[in-house]
Amino acid sequence: MTAGIRLYRVYYSTYNDDVHSRIVEELRSRFGVEVRDHRSTVVREFRFVEVLLGEPGREAEIEEAVKSHGDSVFGVKVEWIDTTR
């Protein structure tokens, strides 16, 4: 039996690869955790990252960090995932 995982999944779109790289780096440095970067193979602009931060209740802070990168980031959604229950 596996232990499960607790993390945030962050979904957003951006046409700018540099902005996406800055978002990933900011999430890493701000929270001091691993950030797994995924990219849609269907829609190039759609991004999906996993922030391996095991503390619930940080959705608003993560969303603000992503949205702070300007108008080229849109459709931001943050989900708390807990498979330990």
UniProtKB/TrEMBL annotation:
The keyword Protease applies. Keywords: Hydrolase, Protease. GO terms for biological process: proteolysis. One of its GO terms (molecular function) is peptidase activity. It comes from the Archaea. This is Subtilisin-like serine protease.
